[in-house]
Amino acid sequence: MMTSKKAPGFYAGMLACVLAIAAAVCYGVVFPGIEYKEQVFDIRICVILAAAGILAAVLLLAGERTAGFAPALLCLGSGVALMLFINIAIWPVSDTIYGIEPFPQITQLVVCAALIAAALVVGEIALYLRKYRPA
User: Fold this and answer.
1) Minimal CB count within 10 Å: which of 2, 28, 32, 53?
2) Rounded to two decimals, what is the model's pTM?
3) Does 106 fall in a domain?
4) Residues facing residue 132 across a β-bridge
């Protein structure tokens, strides 16, 4: 009987990779044409999220020696992307909350922020879980 050596941390890390890539795609598809007093799109967020998700997946799939670096890379990438996203989204959100000038795409903004934050949280959880079972 063949048993898998993969532990819950491996699957949590892969989920964080998928969330990071989904956030990059969501942000890259929805926000390029949107402007609100200034541009609401920053290509660096897409690149950082996609690169972190893909590189972390490669590190997880490469084996036991490199799997420990994947969640750290995910946390770094999604954390930096979240800070850049907050820097861009602060004006539309604050203007909408205070009723100054409503941002019509606030739902898309919240969904994208939730995906980036979920990638960060799941990556952080995967950081402390074992990726592979001991032999």
Assistant:
1) 2
2) 0.90
3) yes
4) 6
Domain count, the chain: 1
Residue 2 counted as domain residue: no
Structure tokens at 33: 């044409």
Question: Which amino acid would we find at residue 41?
Answer: F
- Say if 67 falls within a structural domain: yes
pLDDT digits (tens, 9 = 90+) for 95-120: 888 888 888 888 888 999 999 999 99
Both tokens assigned to 57? 């997946």
Read off the pLDDT of residues 2-15 as tens digits, 9 standing for 90 and up: 557 889 999 999 99
Q: Is residue 116 part of a domain?
A: yes
How far apart are alpha carbons 22 and 25 in whole angstroms? 5
**Structural domain boundaries enclosing 47:** 32-127
Instruction: Report helix, strand or coil for 102.
Output: coil
User: How far, in Å, CA of 49 to CA of 77, rounded?
Assistant: 6
